[in-house]
Amino acid sequence: TRLQGQRHGMFLVRDSSTCPGDYVLSVSENSRVSHYIINSLPNRRFKIGDQEFEHLPALLEFYKIHYLDTTTL
């Protein structure tokens, strides 16, 4: 992937190839890349794990400073 070999904490968001309308957050974590599903909700909010956010940028800002403790894809 594009994040392979990048520094710890680098990330990108892409459209999900398996869940139309959802997104995938890919994060470089030490020597591997982890992928997390971001669900687009009917109320135009975004959900990752148990957390909901009004906007995608708010989700990303939150996880820049908080540990992402949800299961990877």
From TrEMBL:
Record key words, sorted: SH2 domain
Entry GO CC: cytoplasm
Keyword DNA damage found: no
Domain SH2, first and last residues per copy: 1-73
UniProt cross-references to Gene3D superfamilies, sorted A to Z: SH2 domain (3.30.505.10)
SUPFAM superfamilies linked to this entry: SH2 domain
Gene Ontology MF, one: receptor tyrosine kinase binding
GO biological process assignments: cell migration; enzyme-linked receptor protein signaling pathway; positive regulation of ERK1 and ERK2 cascade
One Pfam family of this chain: SH2
Presence of keyword Disulfide bond: no
Protein's UniProt name: CRKL protein
Species of provenance: Calyptomena viridis
Phylogenetic lineage: Eukaryota, Metazoa, Chordata, Craniata, Vertebrata
Gene: Crkl_0
